[in-house]
Write a structure and sequence with these properties.
- Two copies of one chain form a homodimer.
- Chain A is α+β, with helices and mostly antiparallel strands.
- In chain A, 19% of the residues lie in helices and 37% in strands.
- Chain A is globular.
- The model of chain A has no long low-confidence stretch (mean pLDDT 96).
């Protein structure tokens, strides 16, 4: 079986933003759905691991887009596993316009947990047999790995969001992809009209649940580059991020 | 050309809710993307009407689902135009599991406006030629038309939402589909775990824009049947709805 899984998607009208371009939330879902398809066909997808009471947990996600495709564009997303470690696996992505250029790449790091104990699973020990035919270490993913995101200090929240039912996934926590939307929404419509969001880095630190209120923090560390944080209490960080606008 | 347009969609993992079932927001997008595809192929889609500075505006939407399909289900959505009037057109939908049963239907009413004046376009006058080969009045859509939703009186808001950039569409207003999610999110996770949302009626009354705060109101008018409202000021109603849970 090919080590690379490919999935074609169309930028549907009602998945576009105020510019009629693909939004980061839909792109994030497309990437993770492609990852799911890759894993399912190779024996380590949700259907294989749920009966063992295991669940994949997204730990790091970095997306870099030269441009955002417009309404009705046809895309091919490719994904492959770059490496497998004791507790983590690295999975990369390429995003290409069909009949056109590669317009972006993404890197992700995943852990697997036991759904009851929430403890990490020894991936290399328990899943090496499943993975070993599917690792592709040398395929190019020419974007920088995620930077080390340090805690923000001495900041005050710039906005907040009360967690609602549609934010919650099957594991009972806020869906990983929702945080991408929350991070983008820290920035105003005017700012986003003027600046293309070129690179998003997200580090998933803690889980948040229904009924909590998320507070958003940001700090401009270079021109149009923002370190961001989401907390569910003033001292408990849920997500750290870095957003780089053109 | 067939008067009915069909579109196949898969219930992707990252478009499911806390039960691993399709969520109403994604279903709503799937319906409207299918409508867009129907209109585009027949000469009255967004690519045809945007150059004339016209835009489709959703006025009423009613969805009734016997059940919500589970993760990885394959669906076929069908849509057709039931009728065309002076200022409105009625478009219906059928939702079927491929190789299985019809699991739901939807009814919608659309107007077309001039994007600058925001005034309605005389649909029958300007677009009858485009439409007249594509009207299918007799195809069954065995769900009740939308009821008359009267204003809620003497209610206090139960929650609110600050409008963010990702809520906004190309026309500069909150995306029609976002309101479906907002209406569902009036109800707690616990309530939604216990009750299947069988029927949703939405009447789009006024537009709301970036920076406004939406307030949500609900009133139980029969057991598990709620009249709901969204306002952007205490007296200005944006959306009225009716949600019927099992």
């Amino acid at each position: 079986m090919d080590k690379i899984e490919r999935k074609q998607v169309v930028v549907e009208s009602f998945n576009t933003d105020f510019r009629r371009c693909l939004n980061y939330e839909t792109l994030g879902k497309d990437l993770l759905n492609c990852a799911e398809q890759h894993a399912n066909k190779r024996g380590f997808g949700v259907d294989d691991i749920t009966p063992k009471n295991h669940a994949w947990v997204l730990s790091r996600l970095t997306i870099e887009m030269q441009e955002m495709p417009r309404m009705f564009a046809k895309l091919e997303i490719s994904t492959w596993v770059e490496s497998l470690y004791r507790l983590f696996t690295n999975r990369n992505f390429e995003i290409k316009e069909i009949g056109g250029n590669v317009i972006g790449y993404a890197r992700s790091i995943w852990a697997m947990i036991d759904r009851d104990t929430r403890q990490p699973i020894e991936l290399e020990k328990l899943y090496f047999e499943k993975f070993h035919d599917h690792i592709l270490p040398d395929y190019p993913c020419p974007i920088q790995p995620q930077t080390r995101l340090r805690p923000l200090k001495d900041v005050t929240p710039c906005s907040e969001h009360y967690i609602v039912a549609s934010d919650i996934d099957y594991n009972g926590h806020v869906n990983s992809i929702k945080y991408i939307q929350f991070l983008c929404d820290i920035f105003s419509l005017d700012y986003q009209r003027q600046h293309h969001l070129k690179r998003v880095e997200i580090a998933y630190i803690n889980e948040s649940v229904f009924g909590e209120t998320l507070s958003f923090y940001k700090k401009e560390i270079e021109v149009n580059t923002y370190q961001v944080e989401i907390r569910n209490t003033p001292t408990n960080t849920v997500v750290r991020g870095l957003l780089c606008f053109d």
